[in-house]
Write a structure and sequence with these properties.
By secondary structure, the chain is of the alpha/beta class. 36% of the residues lie in helices and 14% in strands. The protein is elongated. The structure holds zinc ion (ZN).
């Protein structure tokens, strides 16, 4: 797929940017458009903002590079612009750049892969320090808005979140190995035979287990009791703070899955009961697609089917185990979700660091010009427990709070992912989660909602360029003359 090859992708970028800005606009043939994307100077000079198309039509090729002009991350695969503005003319093609990030362009030509076929953050342009504080699509929206307002005055932008909240937060949990098993034999072995560091780690884990469970429970509880899980505890902590979250369950049978798949069977009675309890109490039950489902649309359909039967309610959203979309064509996995009837995916995040893998911290339509996204949205995952240090509680807490502050400062959406099975085994991660819950629940500027509610809100307020517009009109002319 070569999404940057023609103008429709720029149209996709324009629509996406206007949505980020919250500006109502429509496509028009107006001789004096507010935004003009094209190379005809007659029209360009009359527009409030003229964006000059750059890209393949000018013979640009080669590796994508990222630089910074006036604090704006500029991506190019050829000659990079010397400056951002030339009068009203924006020299940097923000629309193609927006499409580039939203369609994971920063990973497209990356050959480096980890053992699971995923692009490691160290090889992704989107993980660059340049955009850790302000994801590029947000920067482009501000740039365009500043340009427009210079000429046509203040834009009527809708509020991004309900009740004028500044930012949104979705709490989510992947359910990989929720049942506690006794770790005592392994820990005792490490304590006696392990290397110095392992010995220290197992000492602390053992201490934590004994502290929270008691010595008798830790060492002598019957095996059935050791299958206890922490859903009640997690939900109680959230409920106390007025929060709700989504849990993504895998339904692949142990006998059918890949060696990396989860080790529980969701059709056990205790799971079915749990689904009902979560749903009745206002939590969301979503699908965790199996390790190899990313490349097998039929599996997504059958897993969704199975979860719907077990939970007795269709799931709205999905996240892939190992964050593993199709390694070569990640957008095709998302297209399969939309076709299966899901409302959203929330897989696109880095495996190893917090951040903005699609260059945005907001819901967005993910397919570029390849396919009409309908009402399907991507809610990019922005931070997870596995991004944080396991042994250093203070550092873990600081990271998650700093992340929330970043998202707050850009009015974005933070999607947190804390594995249900680590609640008990990783006290530093648990502390970081509770700190995040405290931060959000005590912040009047935060809107915390279930992912499916966030989708509903986003769709109910969106689609500026699809309906009748009233404020800024956008025109585009094919740029083949350049
Ligand atoms: Zn998983």
């Amino acid at each position: 797929m070569q999404p940057l090859a023609d103008t429709p992708i720029a149209r996709y970028g324009i629509e996406a940017l206007l949505r980020v800005m919250g500006v109502r606009a429509k496509w028009c043939e107006d001789p004096t458009p507010a935004i003009y994307y094209g190379s005809d100077p007659q029209i360009g000079r009359r527009a409030a903002v003229w964006v000059y198309p750059k890209g393949d039509s000018e013979g640009e090729s080669g590796a994508w590079t990222l630089s910074e002009i006036d604090g704006v991350p500029v991506v190019s695969n050829g000659k990079k612009p010397a400056r951002l503005w030339d009068g009203r003319r924006l020299e940097f093609d923000v629309f193609r750049a927006t499409a580039f990030w939203l369609t994971l362009g920063g990973e497209r030509s990356v050959g480096t892969r980890d053992a699971h076929g995923r692009v490691p953050s160290s090889a992704s342009l989107a993980a660059s320090d340049i955009m850790a504080k302000r994801p590029p699509v947000h920067a482009y929206a501000e740039l365009l808005q500043t340009g427009l307002e210079r000429t046509i005055g203040r834009l009527a932008t809708g509020s991004r979140w309900p009740n004028d909240r500044r930012y949104a937060v979705a709490f989510t949990h992947d359910v990989d190995s929720p049942e506690r098993r006794s770790r005592i034999p392994g820990l005792m072995r490490d304590l006696v035979l392990g290397a110095k560091r392992t010995r220290r780690e197992s000492y602390w884990t053992l201490r934590t287990e004994v502290k929270s469970q008691g010595l008798r429970e830790t060492c002598f509880a019957r095996p059935t009791k050791r299958r206890a899980w922490d859903f009640e505890k997690i939900c109680a902590q959230e409920r106390n703070r007025g929060l709700r979250s989504a849990f993504y369950f895998a339904v692949v049978r142990r006998s059918e899955g890949h060696a990396c798949d989860v080790v529980y069977d969701a059709d056990r009675r205790r799971f079915r009961r749990l689904f009902g309890e979560l749903d009745a109490a206002g939590w969301e039950v979503g699908l965790q697609a199996s390790y190899s489902a990313g490349s097998a649309p039929r599996r997504i359909v059958s897993q969704l089917d199975r979860l719907t039967k077990l939970a007795r309610r269709p799931a709205s959203g999905v996240r892939h185990h190992y964050l593993r979309l199709d390694p070569a064509e990640p957008l095709q996995t998302l297209a399969a979700h939309a076709e299966a009837g899901l409302a959203y995916d929330t897989t696109i995040g880095f495996n190893d660091i917090p951040g903005f893998r699609a260059g945005i911290a907001l819901p967005f339509r993910p397919f570029g010009d390849a396919k009409d996204s309908g009402s399907f949205l991507e809610l990019p995952m922005t931070i997870a427990d596995m991004h944080l240090p396991r042994q250093d509680e203070t550092a873990a807490v600081d990271s998650v709070i700093a992340h929330l502050e970043t998202v707050r400062s850009i009015g974005g959406l933070a999607v947190l992912n804390w594995h249900a099975g680590h609640w008990y085994s990783d006290p530093a991660w648990r502390a970081a989660y509770l700190a995040a819950c405290d931060f959000v629940s005590s912040d009047a500027a935060a809107w915390s909602a279930l992912p499916r509610e966030i989708c509903r809100w986003w769709l109910s307020t969106g689609d500026q360029t699809r309906g009748p517009g009233d404020c800024a009109a956008a025109t585009t002319v094919p740029s083949s003359t350049s």
